[in-house]
Amino acid sequence: MKVMQIIPRMDLGGTERGVLDLVKFFNKKKHPSDGQVITNIVVSGGGRLIDELKKEGITHYQLPVYKKSLEALFLIPRLRKIIDQEKVDIVHARSRVPGWLSFFASRRSRACFITTAHGVYKKRIFSEVMGWGKKVIAPSRVVARHMKNNFGVPEEKIVLINRWVDLDKFRFTDYPNRKKSNVVVSIGRISPSKGYEYLIEAFKRLARFNPYLKLKIVGSADKSKVKYLNHLKTLVRRFSLDYNVEFVGLKEDVESVLADACVLVAPSVIEESFGRVVIESFACGVPVVATNVGGFKEIINDGIDGVLVEPANSAQIAEGIIKILDDYSYAEKLVRRAREKVEKKYTLGKCLAQTKEVYKQTNNVLKILVIKISSLGDLILSLPSLKEMRAKFHNAEISLLTLKKYHPFFYDCPYIDEVITLEDKYKRFRNILDSSKVLRRKSFDYIVDLQNNHSSHLISFFSFPRYSFGYSLRWGFLLTKKIKYDKSLSPLDSQERVLRLLGVKLEDKKLIFWPKNTKPSLELPSGNLIGINVSASSRWQSKNWPFKNLIKLIELIYKNL
User: What's the order of all strands across the beta sheet hosting 2-6?
Assistant: First the structure.
């Protein structure tokens, strides 16, 4: 299996170091115990970690996939060419611009598209693509909830995989040796979201507690944050902390920074998606003081393995640091428990084994949507096609898109896994867009359009499957694989011609039915696509009574065919 990791740049941030860890890990697993070899290529805009990739023999393609401009759209054909040449099975996008580009590059290709949401993105259309992956990896429950609640990502697509730490690289130092240090560190990009001004204000009090205590702020500011960096330097001068506070800049070896630290402080004021530097500090034996936000509060058990304080509260930050420095036994207990937590939950091998499992599931499970909206007679005639598709793709997840009123007919149908329903006014363009939005989030590999009208072709197109199949009549040019319509064919022969595009042959063209109670009821999506969850005890409620007699009539006809 080959995976393409696509990321804006390969610089020194946590996401970039995580990608480097991943590709190096799988590169060394040439002969794994399960026989599944995963190789990686990386596409990025370049950066300081490219030399590391080359040392490991990892193929790297340098493209400006970080540019937020319409010109970046011209990169889509080049990315598709890389996917085809390298025979990529999975495209793994780790940021929004690369996400948009690689998503459309993976359409009409062999590659499945997955994402990792590395941030708590603002609810904008630009961020939608991070929820379109066949699987969406979240580094914390905060991000998982955010993707579900704000971007409508189905819960079954979201996989929680914590970020990890390489214990061979981040070695533990006993606290008695670390206690000799007088260096407090804070690591991260220079940005208002990191709350450094509150840490500097806290140091005004800490300098009175211990005038020899030093604060090293490790990280760089991009061009848009230079004004904020200058503001921080002004605060240092105003509080007469020039001796105590140092802006170190970007450091490649975070482990060496932590090796000399007595406390790490993470003073963020926003919902952090995880907090890699926290678990790296845990691994090294550095006590942690962090704000009670986002992923920090998932990692840290306050007073057990770290200290949590309220965001934007310099007094609490100072108190948290003093408590650690002033109580030797308390600090020793924190670091010991923190190291135990890392060894249990955040090791490189454990987290990347979970990532490997996501790759395998993504590659092995095909998601198919069959569109047959009306009428009931045509739906009945589609049953042989559904049966043959189930036989051909027996491990696939097959869904049917039809009208809400026809849903009870498909109760217990063994040929499909899910019924997704539409209202009668589905042909309105606004409703088409809303329906497609819901379907797009379900990330279908194939859409088989057996309806073949204007609306169904538009729904197929805007749902952005990897491939769509149907007839070229009306708006059929929007389909990726299509054939010319022949009016002389019977309905079943007409369906068979479409199925042949998928390699499915309709062997038995007789009307069929199925035994009752072979499948459980299904949970269906809400919104413009209205789902009905019909249980065995309630499926013939008064509002559905016409179908009871209709089904009996159909069964009687089948028995006498």
Answer: 59-62, 39-44, 2-6, 90-93, 112-116, 136-138, 158-160
pLDDT-derived band at 543 (thresholds 50, 70, 90) equals very low
Residue 28 CA to chain centroid, in angstroms?
25
pLDDT at 476: 85
Q: Rounded to an integer, what distance in angstroms lies between the CA atom of residue 160 and that of residue 183?
A: 34
Q: Are strands 307-309 and 367-371 parallel, antiparallel or unpaired?
A: unpaired
Omega within 30 of 0 (cis) for the link into 460? no
Q: How confident is the model at residue 412 (pLDDT cuts 50, 70, 90)?
A: confident
Residue 395 CB contacts under 8 Å (≥ 6 apart), including other chains: 364, 365, 366
DSSP annotation of 127:
G
On whether the CB atoms of residues 91 and 106 are closer than 8 A, the answer is: yes
Residue 93 near residue 114 (C-beta atoms within 8 A): yes
**Helix, coil or strand: residue 215:** strand
Q: DSSP string covering 253-271, please?
A: -HHHHHHT-SEEEE---S-
Instruction: Give the other-Cβ count within 10 Å of 404's Cβ.
Output: 18
- Name residue 436's amino acid: S
User: What percent helix, strand, coil does the chain show, rounded to 5?
Assistant: 45, 15, 40
306 SS3 class = strand
Mean pLDDT score across all residues of the chain: 88
Which residue type occupies 322?
I
Average pLDDT for 446-469: 95
Q: How many other C-beta atoms can be found within 10 angstroms of the C-beta atom of residue 503? A: 8
> Residue ranges of the alpha helices (H) in 422-544?
429-442, 454-462, 491-500
* pLDDT for residue 310 is more than 50: yes
pTM of the predicted structure, to 2 decimals:
0.86
Structure tokens at 469: 């199949």
- The C-alpha atoms of residue 511 and residue 516 are separated, in whole angstroms, by 16
